Amino acid sequence: MSKKRVGILTSGGDCPGLNAILYAVLKYAGSLNWTVYGIANGTDGFIDVALGRIDPEDMRIDEHSFDIPGQKGMGVLLFLSGSVLGCRGKKQREPQEDELICQGYQKIQLDVLIAIGGDGSLEIISELAQKGNWNLVAIPKTIDNDVPGTERVVGFDTAVEVVSDALYNLTFTAASHDRIMLVQVMGRDAGHLALSAGIAGGADVILLPELVPVINERIVSETCLKIAHIRQHKRKFALIVVAEGVQGESQDEPSAEYLKRQLQQYSHLHNSTGATGFYGLGEKIEIRVTILGHLTRSNRPTASDRLLATAFGIKAIEVIAREKDNFQRMVILQEGQIRDRPLAEVMSELKAAKSHSACASPVDPDGFIVQVARALGIYLGN
To answer: In this predicted structure, what is the pLDDT of residue 382?
Structure first.
């Protein structure tokens, strides 16, 4: 087998498990005597090479590039969150920047690029690869789990764990003060994270962009009724999870803050006792908002994410060893197996969805996980 010069980069938002992919790629490529180049800060690293800011040979990495005192080798990468390569890169680029990126690729004399990214960043890199005639293997990652063609992506499992842990912790302070805890999580176009973590964390209400694109009076009214029912028959506190993609009155205001304000106003106006209370309960209700934000992306990757990341990295090297030339593939999880498929098929699905301003891999409103939530009595904006 001929010796390969392999570039690897991380692009788009960071998430847990990126370094575990790098770990697997370095281990397997090293055993084949291939040379691996770590492209810093996404595609911006190619621009730095083209402009002479970085010597390509300074980008070479191997299994001892990340040695730490007392540990020789790269095992530490398995457990690190974020990306040691950096994820910087602009969504909007000038034509001259594309030319510099292609020049940088050629200057390093790469045989292939492994690009780790979400739907947006992979679309950009796919276009660059076509323009520069690169060989490319894509590895999907995102806490949103919304890349089409794969059942799961790197980073999602850890994000679910982070959010469900937060809900667990908030349960006790909510119970102590008889409060409603309203938690906003990431998920601009897809509600996979809010749905899975909400179920695992014991939420009473979960609002997803696929089922509740806009918070209207009906959603507010039915959420109030759900909470009133809980407080009258079960307990005095409740947990609400809302994905950031659920729209309020203004995109400048966080969804959770808007929903909190609407719930307080509606419950006050429709209180049957006429007093400051909640649907006739005769008592003031307190709502607290927690916006998890980037905390969701920063935890140590779970064992499941480390395993998936490692398997994806190994599969990427297998694809490179198998393919001859002029290939663009994406590594996927399908029917419990690690496989690969033409990247062009994935890009076609993404572009078709984008043309309709839709998510390419949304929550299925009739899917089993939604059925699970409904069977548990969780309000989804029915």
So the answer is: 79
| Residue 243: both structure tokens together | 């994905």
Mean pLDDT of the 257-261 span:
93
Q: Which of the 8 DSSP states describes residue 300?
A: P
Contact 119, 353 (CB under 8 A): no
- Is the per-residue pLDDT at 81 higher than 60? yes
Torsion sign across C-alpha atoms 314, 317, 155, 377: negative
Show the beta-strand stretches assigned E in the chain. 5-10, 35-38, 60-61, 112-117, 136-140, 179-185, 205-207, 238-243, 286-291, 328-334, 337-342
Express each pLDDT in 333-358 by its tens digit. 999 999 999 999 999 999 999 888 89
- 165 annotated active-site: no
Task: Give me the domains of the chain, ranges plus CATH numbers.
Answer: 5-155+301-355 (3.40.50.450), 160-298 (3.40.50.460)
User: Which among 196-200, 221-225, 231-235 has the top mean pLDDT?
Assistant: 196-200
Catalytic residue among 14, 44, 98, 144: 144
Distance CA 119, CA 149 (A): 11
Q: At 169, which helix (H) or strand (E)?
A: helix 156-177
Task: Order the strands of the 205-207 sheet from edge to edge.
Answer: 205-207, 238-243, 179-185, 286-291
Q: Phi/psi at 116 (nearest 5 deg)?
A: -105, 115
